[in-house]
Amino acid sequence: MTAFIITKDKIDSDAKGTIGPRSASDSDTARLKAGEGVPFRLLDDDREVYYYGRRLETSDADASYGGETELAPLDCFGGPNAGCTIQQEKNQDGVWEGIN
After folding, report:
1. How many domains does the chain contain in total?
2. What is the pLDDT of residues 15-52, one digit of tens each?
3. pTM for the complete prediction?
4. Which of 14, 59, 67, 93 has the least C-beta neighbours within 10 A?
5. What does the alpha-carbon distance between residue 64 and residue 23 come to, in Å, rounded to a whole number?
6. Residue 93 C-beta-side C-alpha neighbours within 13 Å
7. For residue 2, what are the contacts with CB-CB under 8 A and spacing of at least 6?
């Protein structure tokens, strides 16, 4: 599992600062608040950006999540919270690219 933080909420749902999953440790939280992590953004089917955030590549969060680790922000937050269906991260050229 990976821990993540929502850093920008484009749909005004008061999600900025949300850290997930619920099992994120104090250490994970401190790392995310310090700015660590891989930047991502979550979009809907119309490719409208809803959220920006960062995810840790390694985390103390429990392993109860059965999906792909890098997609935890989408599966655990973006999809259930706002119907997001796409998670993007920047590629080596700095261009946002879908990872799912």
Report:
1. 1
2. 999 998 888 889 999 999 999 999 999 999 999 999 99
3. 0.91
4. 93
5. 9
6. 3
7. 55, 56, 57, 58, 59, 61, 69, 70, 72, 73
